[in-house]
Amino acid sequence: MMNLKGFQNLIKTPDFTTASNLEVLILEGCTKLVDIHLSIGVLKSLKLLNLRDYRSLRTLPTKIGMESLETLIPSGCSSLIRFPEINGKMERTSKNSICL
C-alpha cells in the first residue's frame, strides 16, 4: 500500500516499476500533482486507485494494464481531460466500484 493522501506539495509520483506488487495507491488530495508517472501502467496487482480531489490532474498515461483493479475513484479530478485506454479484461471491476 502506498498512501500519499494529503501530500499537497507532491509534484510528481515515483517510478512504480519496482513496485509491481502494489495493491493500493492513494493519491487523494494531492492538489499540486500534475502527472502520474507512466509506469503506473505496469501495476498489474493494483486493486484500488484513489484519485479523489486530485484537482490538477490533466491526463493519465495513455494505456493502463491494471488487470486486478477493483476500485477506481476519480471523483473531484476537475481538470482531467483524457481518460486512458485500459488494456486487459478488468473482470474484477464493476460499475459500482468506479466512484465518479
Task: Please tell me about this protein's structure.
There is one protein chain. The chain has one domain (1-90). Helix content is 0%, strand content 15%. It has no helices and six strands. It is globular, with a radius of gyration of 12 Å. The model has no long low-confidence stretch (mean pLDDT 80).
> Total strand count, please?
6
One letter per element, helices H and strands E, the order comes to EEEEEE
Taking all Cα atoms into account, the compactness measure Rg is 12 Å
Could you list the spans in which at least 5 consecutive residues all have pLDDT below 50? none
Note the main sheet.
4 strands, parallel
| N→C terminal distance | 22 Å
**How many structural domains are formed by the residues?**
1
Task: Specify the helix fraction band.
Answer: under 10%
Structural class: mainly beta
The best one-word shape is globular
Indicate the mean pLDDT: 80
Features:
mainly beta, globular, four-stranded parallel β-sheet, LRR_dom_sf, 100 residues, 6 strands, Disease_R_plants
Secondary-structure map:
Elements (H helix, E strand, L loop, with lengths): L1 E2 L20 E3 L21 E3 L12 E2 L6 E3 L11 E2 L14
Parallel strand pairs: 1-2, 2-3, 3-5, 4-6
